[in-house]
Amino acid sequence: MSIIERQRFSCMLGGAADAVAAMPGAVPIIHGAAGCGGNLFMASYGGSGYCGGGRFGGNGVPTSALTENDIVFGGIERLETRLRSAIELLDAEIFVVLTACMTEIIGDDVDGAVGRFQGCGKTVFAVSAPGFAGNSYAGYEAALGGLFKRYIKPSPADCRHVNLLGAVPFHDPFFRGDLEEIRRLLESIGLTATTFFTADQTLDDLKKAGSASLNIVLSPAYGVALAAELAESHGIPYIVSELPVGAEASAEFLRKVAERLGIEGAEAVIAREADRYYNYVDRALDLIADTDFMQQYGIVVANANAALPYARYMRRELGWLPRYAFVTDSLNERQREAVEAAFAEAGMEGLALVFETGTTAVRKRVALDNPPLLPERYGDRLSPAYILGSSMEKELAAQLGAKLLTASFPITNRLVVNRGYAGYNGGLNLLEDIITQFVSVR
Amino acid sequence: MPKKLKQIAIYGKGGIGKSTTTSNISAALSEAGHKVMQFGCDPKSDSTNTLRKGKYIPTVLDTLREKSKVDARDVVYEGYNGIYCVEAGGPAPGVGCAGRGIITAVQLFRQQKIFDELDLDFVIYDVLGDVVCGGFAVPVREGIAEHVFTVSSSDFMSIYASNNLMKGIQKYSNVGGALLGGVIANSINEGYAKDIVDDFAARTRTRIMEYVPRSVTVAQSELQGKTTIEAAPDSAQANVYRRLAQKIAEHEKSAIPAPMEINELREWAAKWGNELLALQAGVVVGGETAGI
Predict the structure, then answer these.
(1) Is the pLDDT of residue B292 over 60?
(2) Which candidate, B5, B14, B25, places its Cα nearest to that of B184?
(3) Out of A68, A74, A76, whose CB is closest to B104?
(4) Which residues of B are catalytic?
């Protein structure tokens, strides 16, 4: 028997709107029924640690808000009116029309409509994003792909510039902090990077993406297909890397990028960063080693981007025993194989990689594997356990008597502003947050 | 006791004579003393032209486009012998959603209970061609029409459209949808044409309501912007329509048809193709073995 449950993503339109709203100077304009934008915002905002929509995102997304007559007669007129007023009133440079389900079903000629706005002094283009065509991760790729197609021109390669793909706004709730830290690391070895979605980004950063000499995809699943397209259209080669979380993973990441781009001096940077990192970790050991929460069984419940990085962090930075990594996305075969390959390469013995979108099914799997009546003292009980998951893992935590740090979408019990878990600084943040769960009751 | 309103939908391939047949049925029923409304469900919006001296009437959707709230009474026009004429209309070609337009127009009439108010005996929906999407199936669904008739000639494409319609009826038959009354065989002059539609009806377990011959009287009447009933009331063709209308008026029991699957339909058509070829070549029997 299967149970209908809330999924951990929204639709293609939601992902595309979130991505555009997170870009500098860009406005998403939803061409669809009134309600699409608001409902989708509730999902992404509510689940991402209240990351916020920003000036042109969330509840501020302009929409053509179609009603029945627009469906019968076509919604292009309303779209043009809305687009005209958005361009007039909003202080932005890039206007991205996103088509919702019903305008795709009735076949509105949206490309024709945006074509009439060429020459208005702004960049106006459309991205097909009907909810029935995919989930929010597909929307992220479609929006970023649209930006490359319509705004970012292929330029002569700058051997010191790279782009960061694969970190999905809101569905990776720590995307801002993560991207800022990854860029800091890249800058420390002499590179510059377009992140697309952090607060510091400008239109120049977006344009500069066309001259990158490498696309770094921080995900085994998302942005990979886009990177392959960009290799053709913009001549930018790409590498796929795990999101590095903690000192060891960050060092590997820096070596991988440096080797690929023929950069020397990465080892000095790695040594300096590691010194600082472990200096801080050392001090935390006074707490960690002195108390009885030293080693835990780990359970990760996260999307394809975070599952492996979190599991590796538990094993390699904390010395814990990660037992499960539940990947909660709905993946196609290629993506699933890539995730499996990444886990295999990381050599995570003793860890079960499980693809499971259902929250109850995750609990059931853990319960079936770990009968509660085993003798506590000598049996192989999954205790003490620690979960890096979402707010939907509260019941799993209660079932196991485990600690839970909400670190994957949806996160409803924390405010996430620019906190990140990637890189060296992110690794320290994660240490802080994980251990704080133990002492927060004191 | 209030009299029972009979709602009928007539479907068929575009250009097969659906509106001509429907208008003549309306005219004949009206002549027989019934109160009739003809509801055109085709974005072309010319279903009721021959009831209105060839003139187009403003459509439900034209009116809805101009104002957000429409009184259904404003889009009902009187035609020949007091027949109420309505055209659902639709968006411009290539824009919007004609199917949704039909839904909107039909719902407007249901919500405002116009059929009760006008004390009608018959509402006849004249619906565009193939049942290409949910919108065009609306008269079949939700208990709007009780009986569906399909107009078909012996042309393969026309039979294909009728077979599609039957699939739509079959699909909705277990949720209170309309059932099939029968096939109105149109443009039936040659003997083989009758054989083809008879065979089609037998295969799909339905029946032929009437064989309507192709007639120049119909064309002449339409050129005057009239039905045959109005323009040539004493013609043999008018009597064919009267007979058909009477059968429809008396029709009580419709049934679930048994449409052919696509491969079956193709094989069936190919078999008839061979027989027609044989007929043309003058082979009476054993055409297949005669080396054609």
Answers:
(1) no
(2) B25
(3) A68
(4) 13, 18, 44, 130
